[in-house]
Give the backbone structure.
Amino acid sequence: MKISTKFLFIFAVLFIGLASCSKEKRIERQLVKKDGKWKITSVDYKYYMNNTLQASANFPNAGTIEFNKKGSFVMTLTLSGSPETYGGTWTNSEDAITTISDGNTTVLKIVDGPKKDKLTLEETDYYNDTAEKEAYTYHLERAD
């Protein structure tokens, strides 16, 4: 009886561990599918002071991002004015994509997707010393 209980416990732990890894791998495969190219169809921006919305904006056709299978990325982003290009490395978990560019780490929470060639990511920057917060919501579609 003790052996059966131990076996079931070990099996349950392994199953839970494998299930969590599989979602992570599934997201990674979706990100790099079709050369990993995504269009940033729009970016929603919100600025808060003391948790009160102060400003918001929407930027359509905001750029592109490409996720490479070997863990690198290139993003071209146009929010206002001329485009800016960022490059670096990326990794993912089951609920976020972490990018490192020029020594800066950014965590993009996966809000929706990737499914049906669409993906929604959210980046939030907190400035505790000034009670400010900036939130960016990136709406992506797979590039053809």
About this structure: The chain has one domain: 2-142. The radius of gyration is 19 Å.
